[in-house]
Write a structure and sequence with these properties.
homodimer; 301 residues; alpha/beta; Metallo-beta-lactamase, Chain A; 2 domains; seven-stranded mixed sheet; 10 helices; 28% strand
């Protein structure tokens, strides 16, 4: 599981900072999460393969989270993309994207599917044989969802020495990896745990931006391995959170602690702060395993 | 008159090249021409003052010429802009911009005026006491206009020695600068040319992108001081012009020559070419005073 931060700063793109976008690589799938202006250039600069992105998850329709979508959709068309592209986001995202394509008279040669979200309850929005994606309803100035990405458990690992010892034929291997016990020709039943090892524990990643401090998300993200939580402000500017509906670093850490997260990654920093290390220091007083996002940073998780 | 190229490459933004946008400074006004994705960052990188832009001219609604508009409009709002902003461009630009603002629930605190264009004839779209802007109908895959920016003539320059010699009172100076002769108290009439010098010749700048080779624009831009003309291709790829409705460097030079332009600036280069000097070499065989646009380049004209 790799997380590449393409942009993690609030409000507007600047010379040296980019608005929100990140790529999660999980089980050989590449998910794009949010798509602020300039995301396609950030993908290029970070040498991520455009063509591997088949699913884009947009949290909300503020410009710093989705103004780069139309450019990416158009570039996919110019590059003669063939694979289907699925876009998940708030209602309205389809209308605005299709209007822009219509005005430029440049429809896509690939299938473009929109999955518009309106529910205020957590729901599964994507599922295949390896990964499930669930919404995390957030509270912000407009309708907003975070997304929880969860790996499905792998097959159990075959204990080669054990299966050879019992002379089990290879045609049974998949059954064993799926967890079954095996009955030998002599009638003995070998319990699965003697024939297999535990697979790696499934990983999970939660993206929560933008939002006020909201304990209601804790049950949804409980025991998540990695939590990305917005921290637009430090506690010294906590008075701005109510009006702007953002969170502080300390509040992000409080959520991570309550959710028993393995690691907290902070992002969505207001550009008013010269030194983002202050965010880490503030959060670490509540939740020690805290790291800072930064544009171009790759987390090997 | 200064021209700053923010971006001059065709199709999609890339790591090192930007789509079309440029700033023309004329008579202390700052006009933004086209606004591809990332224009607001290019404005910052080139240290141009956002707040001085009151008029934005969009040639056509292909993404590489206007996907940066909504981001700039939004950023103006976040920066608490107060001045009116005028946007000139093809019909549809208002609907798509307002839809994006509506979806993000972030209307502008300043007045935002759209001047939507539909005419296929050249027309005046902006005029104040110093500058006139006229459309240049172009031929491309969608409805497209270039723009001709023309300075109005300055007042004539007062010949201080002459007016003092005739003891002309200062209250007549503005009348003299406007071109009038003066009758002295003794009945003598002094012709204006004895009391003034010629002002600097008014300058003009024509922006022509995107377009096929189109001689119909020559009368509109006749004798222009500086012509920016697209040259997406070299002659070696001239066969692509018909389908894509673009021009070659040699064709751009042919237009400059017929229009008796003072200088030709080439831009909108396809990124298939490693060396843009080839464009200059090709054009110079037809029109010698040719220069190349490049991102970040400033022409002091």
């Amino acid at each position: 599981m790799n997380l590449t931060i393409l942009g993690c700063y609030a409000a507007t793109p600047r010379s040296l900072t980019n608005p929100t976008a990140q790529v999660l690589e999980m089980k050989n799938r590449m998910f794009l999460i949010d798509c602020g202006e300039g995301t396609q250039v950030q993908l290029r600069k970070n040498k991520l393969r455009f063509s591997k992105i088949n699913h884009i998850f947009i949290s909300h329709l503020h410009g710093d989270h989705f103004y780069g979508l139309i450019g990416l959709v158009s570039t996919f068309a110019l590059l003669n993309r063939q694979n289907d592209l699925h876009v998940y986001g708030p209602k309205g995202i389809k209308e605005v994207t299709l209007l822009q394509l219509k005005l430029s008279n440049s429809y896509t040669g690939y299938n473009l599917y929109f999955h518009e979200l309106e529910s205020k309850e957590s729901q599964v929005v994507f599922e295949d044989d390896k990964v499930v994606v669930t919404t995390i309803p957030l509270i912000h100035r407009v309708y907003t969802n975070g997304y929880l990405f969860t790996e499905k458990p792998d097959d159990r690992k075959l204990n080669i020495e054990a299966v050879q010892k019992y002379k089990i034929e290879t045609c049974y291997y998949q059954k064993i990896k799926s967890g079954s016990d095996i009955t030998l020709d002599d009638g003995r039943t070998i319990p699965n745990k003697e024939l297999t090892f535990d697979p790696p524990a499934p990983k999970s990643y939660a993206f929560c931006s933008d939002t006020v401090y909201n304990e209601a998300i804790v049950p949804i993200i409980n025991n998540v391995d990695v939590l990305y939580h917005e921290s637009t402000f430090l506690e010294s500017e906590a008075h701005l959170c109510e009006r702007t509906m953002h969170a502080t670093a300390r509040q992000a850490a409080a959520i991570a602690k309550q959710a028993n997260a393995g690691k907290l990654i902070l992002g969505h920093f207001s550009t008013r702060y010269g030194n983002i290390e202050l965010f880490k220091e503030e959060a670490a007083t509540v939740f020690e395993n805290t790291e800072l996002a930064d544009d171009g940073k790759v987390f090997k998780l």
